[in-house]
Every structure is written in C-alpha cells, then in structure tokens.
Write a structure and sequence with these properties.
The complex is a heterotrimer. By secondary structure, chain A is α/β, with parallel strands linked by helices. The longest helix of chain A has 32 residues. The N and C termini of chain A lie far apart (53 Å). Chain B has one domain: 3-Layer(aba) Sandwich (Rossmann fold). The chains are: A alpha/beta, B alpha/beta, C alpha+beta. Chains in contact: A-B, A-C, B-C.
Chain lengths: 398, 308, 98
C-alpha cells in the first residue's frame, strides 16, 4: 500500500507545521503566540474556525498553561498538539519535565530561537539545548517538507505503546518559519492510515472520572527509581523506533530522512562535518563542491537529538581522520558547542581524532557557503596533522 | 439518658456519598482542611476529578506509589498548572461526553500567588471547573511562610516578629473580591463552622460548573502555623464570621449577596485573641486591622446593594 | 544490566489505584487525649460528627462514638458539643487496655 500523491503547494514552515498538525486530527490544542511561532497558533485556530479541524482550542494566557492544558488532556486520553519557541519553551519548563515524567504523548513544535532576555529575537538552537535533559524526544528538521513529515511521524512515535513520550519537533526560526517552500501535503486519509496502527495497541492509562485511579502519585523510593528507569529506558528504545517509523513512512509516502541521522556522501570520507537543521542544505552544497575538488568529505545531519544517536553516530564516525561540528548554540562552561561536546563524548568508541567546534548562525546570521567551506578546509587540514583551533566563533573572526 | 429526639443537623441531607477518604490520613490534628476535603466529594459525588499540587493537601490528595488515600480520580500537577490542567481535563471530558466535575483544590499559596495567572486565565475563559481555595493565610506546608493572603501584622516565618519586625507589613490580597471581578458563573466564600452553608454552596457549584467557572474560597485556619489549640479551630472559623473578618457570601454572574448577615459584628480582637500569630499586635495594629476589615466589608456591602 | 527490581507500577507513568491499595496511617497513635462520651449527656444531635476533621465518629444509632484507630485527639468534638458530652481524657489512663 502506498499513499496517494499529495497536493503540492508553496507555504512557509509555520503553515506547513499547522497543516501537518491538522492532518493528525489533534483533539485538544493549546498554544500561546510567540515570534517566530505565532502563525502556527493562528493557523490552527483558523482551521477550527473554518470547520477544517474539529478540536478544542484553548487560548491560554501563557506557555506554561499551554503545556499544562495539553499535558492534562493527553493524560485524559486526548491526542494533543502545541507549539512554542524560545522563552515560551523556557516558560513551560516545569511542566515540560512533568509531561515527560508522566509519560504524556504530547507532540509539540518548537520553532528554534535564542532565549537570553529580549536581546535575542533571532534564530538559534539555544532553546532546544536548554531543555535537552527534560526527558522529551527531540527531533530537528531541515526544511518545510520535513516539518510536515516529521510531525506525522512524531505522533506515531509519541503514542507508540512502547514509547509513551512527548516529542518536540524543532525547526529553525526565521529560516524556516517564514521561508516559503514548495511542499507536498499528504492526504488526510493517508495520514489516518499511517497513524491507524496506534489504535490497535493496548490502551494507555487515562484519568477517568469516578475511577479510583490517579496520575502523578508520589514515587516513593524504589517507586520513583522505577519510574525514572522506565522513562530512561523508553528514550533508549526510541532510537530504533525513530529509524523504524522513518522507514515505514518512506515505504508509504515515498519520503524518508535516515531516521536518527542523515548521512550524506560519507562513503570513503576522511572527514565528516556534523550539523543539524537548515544549515544542512548549505553543508550539502559545500560537500558536493569539495568532493569535486577531491576532498574526501561527508556530512552527517543530526535529526534525533534526544535520545542522542550514539550507535548510529559511532558507526559513521569511527575511524575517520577528523570531524567538524557546527553548532547554532552554546555550551557554557565547555570549550566547544553543545553538539560538539556530545560528539566528543563518543571518543572511546570512535577513537581519538581532531574534533573541531564551530559556533555559527547565532542572531539570524547566515551559515554561509564560505563559512562551511572554511570549516571543511580546516577540518581537512587537521586530518592531515596541521595545527587547529579547538573552538571557532566564525562570525567573530570575520 | 436524654431522649434522642433532636433532629440531626440538616447538613447531612446534602451528603450524597460516603466519605471517600481513608480513615487515617496525614493531616494535622484539628486541621479544617481535612474536613473540607472530606466534605467536597460527599456533596459533589464520586464523579469528580481532583486537580491538586504540592501543598498541605498534596500528601493525601495524591497517592504514594500504587497506593492512594481516597477512592477519587486525581491529577497531581506542578504549582503553576492547576487551573490550566483542569482546563485540559474539562475540555476533553466535555468533548467526549464524560460527565465529570473537575475540582481544583489548592491552598492560598497556589491560588493567590504562584498559580494565580492560570487561575485568572481559566476564570476569564469561563472554563467549566470548580476552583476551591483553602485559605490558611500562608505557605503552611513549607513551614508557615507569608503568602499574599497573609493578613497585615501576622507573624510568619518570613515576616517574623523581632526587635524591628512587626509581622507582615502589608495587607492581604482580597482574593474573593479579585475573583468576583472576573465575573465567574458562581463564586462563594465558606468556612467549616458553617457546614450547611458550605454544603449548599458546593451543590450550587456543581450545577453552575456545567455553565461556567466557579470559585470557592474556604477560610481554613492552620492550628500549627497560627498557633491555635487544635480543639479551637472551628471556634476560630466562627469568630472570623462573627467579626466580619471572613464574611459568608456568594455571587451568581458577578452579583454578590451575603448568605449570612451578622447582626452585631464583634470587634476584630475577638478573633485575633484566639491565636498567637497576632499576639504581638498593639492597639493601633488592631485598629488598622479593623479599618481594613471595615473597608472591605463596606465595599462588599456596596456591591451587594448595587446588584439588587 | 541485570534488573533485579520487581516492578511496583504496571504502568509506564506513576498511577495509583486505591481499589488495589487504600493507604491508611495509624493516626490513632498520634493521640495524647481521647474523647470519652458521657451517654447521659448525649442527645445524638450529631454536631460532633459534623465537625470531626477525620470524620471518625461512628454513628451508633443513638449516639456517636470515636473510632480510636483514627481519632487524632484534636478535641473538636468535645469543644463543639453543646452539652459537654465528650470529655478529653489523657491516654496514659488507658495504658493497660492493650
């Protein structure tokens, strides 16, 4: 069975996200507007107003409430959706932890934006990084088509009985949120069919009026340890599940993304550039150009950030000569970016090699072809034994 | 033996359910919060969901591992998420045709302070929930720190009385009045010295919550934090009513009316002398307390008159 | 990793079920004084039961008597009884009762 061809049209990342959410038929939606996410909240409200989506919309007074609304509705059995960005994500932090800890399968779009004060109304992944230990599944996508497809896949993952975890789908604010691209929108009946297997699973526990059951009971001693172990284990299981769902999605809809990571021209590569999100497109262009020049370079795009794709990355990075990691956020207190830190943690498995950290693309500054070209050149030099700089803030050196 | 001729108190007629709580629960001896919690499902029935948060109610409202202290459905959530979580539940229950009363049950710390924003939001959106605040005038569960419901002059562990400190310097947030201005479908104040009044209001609340937002503010003295003898808490509730420190009133669609008019209100000192949290107050402090009380009661009376 | 722990929860999240386990504390042991009823004075009006915070006054048909398993000894029943039918007696006097 294959899905029918969807309607092809041009739309922004935010419209793509709202559209994809609509296709998944959420029953309760609550979102608080924040730049650059606002159109997602507006568009979902418009669908409901136009009768294109039958959902309860709760126009809350802040993101913290948005997360509480969808968390509780999810625990009552609803399929839910929310969207936020930057400070909105930070403002719901306490409930973010609760939602994951209570194992509520919430699906949320996070439109990545920097969060230090109001000095940064611009793109960056610091919001995502600040919540990496919240116990959510975190996926980063690259373009508007992937936003659509990943949101559909996110429901399949979140509501899977073996997983039961909230999933955060991240895409670059400004770069994708307001960028209009051509996308193919799946048909709603095909999305129904793709999500149908969730219906035949054993039911998950629900808050039922009149029942003597309750959610959020105090985990006492081993009860708490057990809950944390189960939560941790579910994230461990999520890695393979992401690969499986991506494969199934590919078989049905004809598009797949590599699951946990995307590998691009890594065969025979001496050096690998690791990146994520919309910067992957630029990196691919540079990899192609450099390959033409004879540089044996490949790219790895991190799609799944939590759980971290340790095994898949180890497999692809092992035995290379050098790695460059481009981060769109900071890791305070470490001499590298956050994704670079995590790649460095794989050293016992991938072997010692130069791992160069690059900070770029903060404050909506473009991660350009010359930037990535520079990265490839330096990493290539390091691979050949040339001295290198451990961490480079690319815009600060221009 | 005296003949058992006297009719039982009418409040028993309002009870439709047995006590849903376990016999031995971890509330302090003499705490009216325990009575409040046990009364709510007796009147509302079992088809309810308690939404609570860390507070004096938490150790009993929410279970421990697989065990629980009552036969009711509940959701335990973070301090900032009570009214919003209740919103999520209520919206989904209504959508799916599940008949349920969603009851938020928190202390004044959550309602007037950290959880106020979502409470205000839920009231404005007219969510079909009942929000019950048990007001013990401070953060009692964490050890008697001041809240915005703590009255002026009260000794708490963060407004201690010392060489310089004279207790809390500012007056409390007039929470029932703040909520009245949200024009909820129904609003009521209650206290456990007047159980029939409370039961009537709960019953009304259940009906009104089918149409909109309901707020109930229950005056709930803390025998430990206020330093009251455990046998005296009901008397303290009574004194709060008699002095008009805590008037009993209700409001449908924002139109208040007193449910009990005190014929000859007693001076505030008859209330304050029952506890030691005010024992340092001097005459001028009491006069100021009386002035605040009179001012608030006058406002309430004016609004009651205006609504006639 | 070999997990030896036997699961407490059947669910992935932390859900309690009072039908499977209703928790109870031995709050009767908190008591320093116990209410003792003078049946001569009691007229079965029920005010004691009404105000009792743990709701542990048992209806005996013609009077109310405390369930001493749970009575915390707060003394509200004695204080609120308009006929003074309950007296609070120090627990020490009942020490021999086992």
């Amino acid at each position: 069975m294959k899905a029918k061809k969807g309607k092809v049209s041009v739309m922004t990342g935010n419209y793509a996200a709202a559209n994809a959410a609509r296709l998944c038929r959420p029953e309760v939606v609550s979102a608080y507007p924040i730049t650059p996410q606002s159109e997602v909240a507006e568009q979902i409200s418009a669908y409901v107003a136009n009768g294109e989506l039958d959902a309860e919309i709760v126009e809350v007074e802040g993101e913290n409430s948005a997360m509480n609304v969808v968390c509780a509705a999810s625990l009552a059995g609803a399929r839910v959706f929310t969207a936020t960005s930057s400070y909105g994500l930070v403002f719901m932090y306490d409930t973010l932890l609760q939602t994951a800890g209570y194992r509520a399968p919430v699906v949320m779009v996070n439109v990545n934006r920097e969060p230090p004060g109001i000095q940064a109304v611009s793109g960056g992944q610091q919001d995502l990084i600040s919540t990496r230990d919240s116990g959510w599944v975190q996926v980063i996508v690259e373009n508007n088509q992937e936003i659509i497809d990943q949101i559909i896949m996110a429901y399949r993952l979140a509501e899977d009985h073996d997983i039961q975890l909230p999933v955060m789908v991240n895409y670059d604010g400004y770069y994708l949120s307001y960028l209009a691209e051509s996308v193919e929108m799946p048909l709603i009946e095909d999305v129904d069919a793709f999500l149908a297997p969730l219906k035949s699973q054993p039911p998950r526990p629900r808050i039922i009026p009149g029942a003597a059951t309750g959610c959020g009971t105090h985990g006492m001693e081993m009860g708490y340890v057990e809950a944390r172990y189960k939560h941790w284990s579910a994230l461990e299981r999520a890695r393979e599940k992401v690969d499986d769902i991506d494969r199934l999605f590919g078989e049905y809809f004809g598009r797949s993304y590599g699951g946990q990571i995307e590998e691009y021209r890594t065969d025979g590569a001496d050096i690998i550039i690791v990146t994520s999100g919309s910067a992957a497109g630029t990196t691919r262009t540079v990899v192609d150009a450099k390959r033409n020049e004879g540089v044996r370079v490949g790219m790895v795009k991190i799609r799944l950030f939590r759980p971290f794709p340790e095994d898949r990355l180890t497999e692809v990075l092992k035995g290379r000569k050098a790695i460059g990691v481009v981060d769109r956020s900071l890791c305070f207190g470490w001499k590298c970016g956050p994704m670079c830190m995590e790649i460095k943690a794989l050293t016992p498995d991938i072997g010692r090699m130069p791992i160069l950290s690059y900070i770029d693309g903060l404050a909506n500054l473009d991660i350009t072809v010359p930037h990535i070209t520079r990265v490839v050149d330096e990493v290539n030099g390091a691979a050949q034994g040339k001295p290198f700089q451990e961490v480079t803030w690319i815009p600060m050196e221009e | 033996m005296v003949e058992a001729t006297k009719k039982r108190n009418r409040v028993f007629d309002y009870y439709c359910e047995e006590d849903q709580f376990s016999g031995g629960v971890a509330w302090c001896a003499g705490c009216p919060l325990e009575l409040t919690a046990r009364t709510i499902p007796k009147v509302l029935g079992k088809n309810m969901v308690f939404v609570g948060t860390p507070s004096c109610a938490a150790p009993v409202l929410h279970g421990q591992n697989m065990g629980a202290w009552h036969y009711l459905s509940y959701l335990a959530c973070v301090m900032t998420g009570v009214a919003s979580s209740a919103t999520g539940l209520s919206r989904y229950f209504r959508r799916t045709g599940q008949d349920a009363t969603v009851v938020c049950f928190t202390g004044d710390g959550c309602a007037t302070d950290i959880g106020f924003q979502p409470l205000s939001g839920a009231a404005e959106r007219a969510e079909h929930i009942i929000y019950i605040t048990y007001d013990n005038e401070g953060y009692m569960n964490t050890g008697n720190q001041r809240s915005s419901a703590t009255p002026r002059g009260a000794h708490t562990s963060t407004t201690p009385v010392g060489k310089v400190g004279r207790g809390k310097p500012t007056q409390s947030k007039n929470m029932p009045m703040v909520m009245l201005m949200h024009r909820p479908r129904y609003l009521a104040t209650a206290t456990l010295s007047h159980p029939e009044d409370f039961a009537k209001k709960l019953l009304k609340a259940k009906e009104m919550a089918r149409e909109g937002f309901v707020y109930i503010h229950v005056f709930s003295p803390c025998p430990v934090g206020w330093r009251i003898d455990s046998n005296n808490v009901i008397e303290v509730c009574r004194a709060a009513v008699r002095t008009n420190y805590f008037p009993l009133w209700e409001a449908e669609n924002g139109q208040p009316r007193l449910t009990l008019e005190v014929a000859n209100p007693r001076p505030i000192a008859e209330f304050t002398r029952l506890m030691r949290k005010f024992s340092h107050l001097k005459e001028d402090d009491l006069a100021e307390m009386q002035r605040i009380l009179d001012e608030r009661f006058a406002l309430l009376k004016t609004l009651c008159g205006a609504s006639k | 990793m070999v997990v030896k722990h036997k699961n407490i929860f059947k669910t992935e999240g932390t859900w309690s079920d009072a039908r499977k386990l209703l928790l109870k504390l031995d709050t009767g042991s908190w008591r320093t004084e116990r209410p003792v009823l003078d049946r001569e004075k009691c007229n079965y009006c029920g005010l004691c039961a009404l105000y009792c915070p743990p709701q542990c006054l048992l209806d005996r048909g013609d009077r109310y008597e405390p369930n001493l398993d749970f009575c915390k000894g707060c003394g509200i029943c004695a204080k609120e009884c308009p006929r003074g039918a309950f007296g609070m007696v120090p627990e020490g006097e009942f020490i021999d009762e086992g």
